[in-house]
Design a protein that fits this description.
Layout (H helix, E strand, L loop, with lengths): L1 E7 L2 E7 L7 E3 L27 H5 L1 H7 L2 H30 L20 H13 L13 H29 L9 E3 L3 E6 L2 E10 L5 E15 L5 E9 L9 E2 L5 E6 L20 E10 L5 E9 L3 E3 L1 E3 L3 E3 L4 E3 L7 E3 L7 H10 L4 H27 L2 H6 L5 H18 L5 H7 L5 H22 L3 H7 L10 H11 L1
Parallel strand pairs: 5-13
Antiparallel strand pairs: 1-2, 2-3, 4-6, 5-6, 6-10, 7-8, 7-9, 7-11, 11-12, 14-17, 15-16
């Protein structure tokens, strides 16, 4: 067996070919696609090769500690207090050792810096009593030790700073609104179906708590790789999906589950997406829900994503709200449930093209163009016929461009007559009255077409005027010209 690996973006498909030459390919199942954002909202991004840029984390130490995991926060909390206590207890022990208080601790006539400090454990207990303000009253600072008073002041200031920093860090981490996002639900799948006569991408959001999300707003991003006309490859190009920004529908009143809609139109990135193309497309829809937690006033953000295999074509969500006695009940057991509905498998682009091809408005334009072509063809035919006449007969008929003008007038008349079909019925009835528009149009056309003829004939000699006006002068012509003249005027 030989294996051929094909790479499609982030997906890999292994095709095994039998060495016996049977010609059958057995495609292995696709490896699960790597997501950019997990269903729980965690972003699968790791920053590496920072080099000297890691010092930036120390410049914002408070945020760095808040962003750490709980186990590291607890470890740093315990380690910081332990080191600080040991350090300060050592300072008290060093003062007692330098002054000789440890050797004369039991001398009643001697006044030490700190009473009843005999060794390091007793110095450590004195620090804890001072730091925690327990105040047993057995160990205390005397007035004969100015260095002890200075160290006491330093200990108080340093202890307040450490407490504010670490306790504040732990409080912020415990009160982070990330846990509030755990009670915000997103449907497991997104669906594409018709709504209000338009192809629409939909998914559902819900709030499990009775406390509301103030100023809740939702946004959608489409992550898809593409290549620019200049040849640049963008692996995670972000496009905005309109979920009601122009109409204000993105501002949510999230009391009950809502269905978020993205209308697929010419401005949508899914304009040419069809049911068949979804089998080969690779994209990820990232949903971001933001709002203010009503109880704490802190901003909360919940995220999720839908890959192409999590978008169901031709499905719709089950209703979850029912009216009970005096209240509305939400059934979250049907929150993720969908059912199939009739949906065209074509993209919006293909539907518009098919609608354009089958539109009856195309017929008049086609018929108009056909009539114009016929009139032009007739004009060219008559021009060819007129050019075949002898020069004398061409002079007899007047100017050489007379047939062209007459045909133009007749074609204009036919176009005007055809245009009556495009008028409303009342105007067609008025124009179809006998002796009204058609007779006037014909008489006007005859008048227009006869004026150039009369002007051209008036310029001829008397004999030729009779010939041009239909006078019987055929007997004076030679037989060939007589035959040509009869063919010309018949």
């Amino acid at each position: 067996m030989s294996a051929l690996r094909k790479k499609f973006g982030d997906d890999y498909q292994v095709v095994t070919t039998s060495s016996s030459g049977s010609g059958f390919n057995h495609p292995a199942p696709k490896r699960k696609r790597q997501r950019f954002v997990d269903k729980n909202g965690r972003c699968n991004v790791q920053h590496g090769n920072l080099g000297s840029e890691t010092s930036r984390y120390l410049s914002d130490l408070f945020t760095t500690l808040v962003d750490l995991k709980w186990r590291w926060n607890l470890f740093i909390f315990i380690l910081t207090y332990t080191v600080a206590w040991l350090f300060m207890a050592s300072m008290w022990w060093v003062i007692a050792y330098i002054r000789g208080d440890l050797n004369r601790a039991h001398d009643d006539k001697y006044t030490p810096c700190v009473a009843n400090v005999y060794n390091f454990p007793s110095a450590f207990l004195f620090f804890i009593e001072t730091e925690a303000t327990i105040g047993y009253g057995y160990r205390y600072i005397t007035d004969k030790c100015p260095e002890g008073i200075i160290l006491f002041l330093f200990q108080s200031i340093l202890g307040s700073i450490v407490d504010a920093f670490l306790i504040g860090c732990m409080f912020i981490k415990m009160s982070q609104p990330k846990k509030r996002a755990e009670t915000l639900m997103f449907s497991e799948h997104a669906v594409i179906s018709m709504r209000d006569g338009k192809l629409t991408l939909m998914f559902r959001v819900g709030n499990l708590r009775n406390s509301h999300m103030v100023s809740a707003q939702i946004r959608c991003k489409l992550l898809k790789s593409r290549q620019t006309p200049e040849g640049e490859f963008l692996p995670l190009d972000q496009l905005e999906l309109d979920v009601g920004f122009s109409t204000g529908a993105d501002q949510l009143f999230l009391v009950s589950p809502l269905t978020i809609c993205h209308v697929i139109d010419t401005k949508s990135p899914f304009y040419d997406l069809s049911q068949r193309s979804m089998q080969t497309e690779q994209f990820e829809i990232v949903v971001i829900l933001e709002g203010i937690v009503e109880t704490t006033g802190m901003t909360c953000q919940a995220r999720t994503s839908y890959t192409e295999d999590e978008v169901l074509w031709g499905h719709r969500f089950f209703p979850v709200i029912s009216l009970e006695e005096g209240f509305f009940k939400v059934d979250y057991s049907q929150f993720h449930a969908t059912f199939e509905v009739p949906t065209p498998p074509y993209s919006v682009k293909e539907q518009e093209e098919m609608l354009l091809m089958s539109s009856p408005l195309m017929a008049p334009s086609l018929s108009n163009s056909g009539e114009k072509n016929n009139s032009v063809d007739g004009l060219e035919t008559l021009e060819d016929t007129s050019t075949k006449l002898p020069s004398k007969l061409q002079k007899i008929t007047g100017r050489e461009d007379l047939p062209r003008k007459l045909l133009r007038m007749s074609s204009t008349t036919s176009e005007k007559a055809y245009s009556l079909g495009d008028l409303p019925m009342k105007l067609q009835r008025i124009s179809s009255v006998p002796g009204n528009s058609e007779e006037k149009l014909v008489s006007k056309t005859t008048k227009i077409s006869s004026d150039p003829m009369s002007q051209s004939v008036a310029d001829l000699p008397p004999k030729l005027q009779r010939l041009a006006t239909g006078g019987r002068m055929d007997g004076h012509l030679p037989p060939k010209l007589r035959k040509m003249n009869s063919d010309r005027f018949t």
